[in-house]
Specification:
With 165 residues, the chain is α+β, with helices and mostly antiparallel strands. The chain contains five helices and seven strands. Helix 1 runs parallel beside helix 3. Bound molecules: magnesium ion (MG).
């Protein structure tokens, strides 16, 4: 007899907007007059996604695995970190079933870059693009996102395995 097991995880992240930095979202450089402040490339979308994956696998969060105090993570592409998280999840016996992400920002429009983001994320999590959701919404001018002080991102991840019992 086999039983299917699945686990869901949730991730949330915020980074401050600053001039003079590249805006990197979902592993893709998005042309903009501002970027996100942070120790790594500050890819808020991938940070939320990694926290969702780690949460589902019961493996803590990205702060545990990639401490901001460690110099080796300074300026590193978050895709490198996503690679490691994907491996970690697989080592724990999990397969990623699907992920879904929402980025909350006033501008720029992300739709033209979504396909490239899915292409960057998919191979690292062994996911088809149909199993990756990436959506963007504005905050209707409200709050810190509305004042363009920062960008927020949320993600959920579903992991599954078939275990003999
Ligand atoms: Mg972050």
């Amino acid at each position: 007899m086999t039983t299917s097991t699945c686990r869901v995880g949730l991730g949330y992240d915020v980074h401050r907007l600053v001039p003079g930095r590249q805006l990197v979202l979902g592993g893709v450089v998005v042309p903009a007059s501002f970027g996100l402040e942070g120790h790594s490339d500050a890819d808020v979308l991938l940070h939320a996604l990694m926290d969702a994956l780690l949460g589902a696998a019961g493996q803590g969060d990205i702060g545990v695995h990639f401490s901001p105090g460690e110099d080796r993570w300074r300026g590193v592409s978050s895709l490198v970190l996503l690679d490691r998280v994907g491996s970690l999840v697989r080592e724990q016996g999990w397969q990623v079933v699907n992920v879904d992400c929402t980025v909350v920002l006033e501008r720029p429009r992300l739709l033209p870059y979504v396909a490239a983001m899915k292409a960057a994320i998919g191979p690292r999590l062994a996911l088809d693009e149909q199993a990756i959701g990436i959506k963007a919404t504005t905050n209707e001018g409200l709050g810190f996102v509305g004042r363009e002080e920062g960008i927020a991102a949320m993600a959920v991840a579903l992991l599954g395995r078939v275990a003999a019992s």
